[in-house]
Amino acid sequence: AGGLIGWANDAVVVRDSSVTGTVTSTEYAGGIVGGIWDGQIMDSTASVTVTGSTSQTISGVGGLVGRSSGAISNTTATGDVDGHINVGGLVGYAEGVLSRSTAEGAVTGESAVGGLVGTLEAEAPSSSAEIRDSTSRGDVSGSSLVGGVAGSRGE
């Protein structure tokens, strides 16, 4: 579930968008987009409280996007984020490039919990995951794999 789009495939571009409110989901959950594959989110803001399932099957909970394999740039997420696994202030599970972005909210989860990204998947052969010129400003708490920027670097 997302504040704007639940799921986006095939080079979808989200630009100059702003979302406020609350997003709650039992799977991918994000302030703007629940999940985006090979797309882009740029010049956008989410002032959204995002809550993901407490189930082990949750795949990503983020202030901006739950799971992303695309590029994210010039974005801000200011709401609190709460989930179980792969929980991030901006992106829950990232397989793409994150640049010039900011997360400003409390992030709470159990495992793979990060101020910007819960899990940065950099292990896959085709993955170009990285974080550039980005900032996290908020409390981050969890039981394992917890970081101010990223909770986990992947498998």
Description of the molecule:
The protein is an all-beta fold and 155 residues long. Helices cover 0% and strands 55% of the residues. The protein has no helices and 22 strands. Strands 2, 3, 6, 9, 10, 13, 14, 15, 18, 19 and 20 form an eleven-stranded parallel sheet that branches. It has a six-stranded parallel sheet with strand order 1-5-8-12-17-22, with no helix packed on it.
So what's the oligomer here?
Answer: single chain
The biggest sheet, with number of strands, parallel, antiparallel or mixed sense and barrel status, is: 11 strands, parallel
- What share of the residues does DSSP label as strand, in percent? over 45%
> In angstroms, what is the radius of gyration?
13 Å
State the separation between the terminal residues, measured CA to CA. Answer: 25 Å
How many β-strand runs?
22
Write down the overall mean pLDDT: 90
**Percent in helix:** under 10%
> What is the count of helical runs?
0
Write the layout of secondary structure elements.
Blueprint lengths: L4 E4 L4 E3 L2 E8 L3 E2 L2 E4 L3 E13 L8 E2 L2 E4 L2 E7 L3 E2 L2 E4 L2 E4 L2 E3 L2 E2 L3 E2 L2 E4 L2 E4 L9 E3 L2 E2 L3 E2 L2 E4 L2 E3 L3
Parallel strand pairs: 1-5, 2-6, 3-6, 4-7, 5-8, 6-9, 6-10, 7-11, 8-12, 9-13, 9-14, 10-15, 11-16, 12-17, 13-18, 14-19, 15-20, 16-21, 17-22
